[in-house]
Amino acid sequence: MRFLEPGLAGKPVPVTTKRIFWRVHRQRKKMEAEAALELVKHGATLLLLDVPQNTLIGIDTQMFFSGPNFKGVKMIPPGVHFIYYSSSNREGNEFSPIVGFFVEASPSEVIVKKWDSKDERFVKLSEEEGERYAQAVKKLEFDRQLGPYALDQYGDWKRLSNFITKSTIESIEPIGGEITIISESEMVGHVHKTAMEKVLAEQLKNSKFSKPDKKSLSNGCYYTSIPRVIKLKGVSGQDLTNMNLDKTHILETILTKQYGGSEDSLLGELQFAFVAFLIGQSLEAFLQWKLVVSLLLGCTEAPLHTRTQLFTKFIKAIYYQLKIGFQKDSKDTSRAEKGATTSLDESLLSADNFLRHLCKDFFSLVLDAPMVDGDLLTWTRKLRELLERTLGWDFRLNSSVDGMHLEEDDEFAPVVEILDDPDH
Known about the structure:
This protein has helices at residues 15-42, 127-138, 154-161, 166-172, 185-188, 195-206, 237-245, 248-257, 263-278, 283-297, 301-306, 308-326, 330-337, 346-351, 353-367, 374-391, and strands at residues 4-6, 12-14, 44-49, 56-59, 62-65, 72-76, 79-86, 99-105, 110-116, 121-124, 147-148, 179-180, 231-232, 417-418. It is α+β, with helices and mostly antiparallel strands. Residues 43-174 form the AAR2 N-terminal domain. One of its GO terms (biological process) is spliceosomal tri-snRNP complex assembly.
């Protein structure tokens, strides 16, 4: 007679079969432990020393609130990442504006930072001291104090950053590498105040941590200058109007002069600015993202004829930016309460009419074209459906205005300016 015992699904399993199951189970656990150890050894590590409790620490779309034993993050996939932090008061209920920086992590690299309690920021160690800590990490001396990188969220991060390279970071990042709205205080009083810009400006104005510190602040990022209008000598007003209605000429000029003809470099800057805006809460980054999006969505010739592949990649990139940005989960509420979030506010973005207007005209251009690239058509439809489903925007054309959706005070309305200065 064979004795039966309950299996995983509640069905009887022979004892001999159960022994085999537990043997396989132990082997699987051993393999998982070995795989985790490989990730620890070959993944990058962020070691943070002397971090005060309740400090917000983030990498990519993941956030941690430091406890007494927290010393960083392990198992970080090699590649580009955005690291950010926010200090709190003693009670842990008020947080400073986010400070963030991009890194390109190599396999097994250990990035070591130490908390400076005086300036409330992370600083680098000397090369010798940093190497000593790096060796300790590789010997797993800090392993129990390191939180694992959530690999199930890595896919979203790659979709937000797949065009960002080391070259992108080096060409745009500010002196010192740190991106923060605190260094943008002079900008706040001089920008066009849309709903989103007002929120970011108010965050800086009302923060108790926002007093400028000349020793720690940078001069801002080195974003590419993108003109809103073309200014040319000896060109008729009608021709200038046509050029500014279709921004293909501006796009081609910028690609050639600023990016050496590299389309991916432009998309890398688009993603850099979005990450710095969404996660780093930078007003300057939001303005740059807005300029790049407005430039590309303002083209009519390039999407259908000369730069179809660029626009397919662009629409795919902005689709994931908005899709991931609109994601809400149970953690977002607590993050927002503490002054940090990685989600877009739908009502605020809805108030920034530039995106709705430009998307409406772009969708009409692509979806009504007699011939269009299949991939561009697919991703344009996906983006339209996302905005309709998430924000409730209606992209049906209003026949009374024949597809034009520019309001009198629309800051992105075409502007014609004829100059006699040959330098322009």
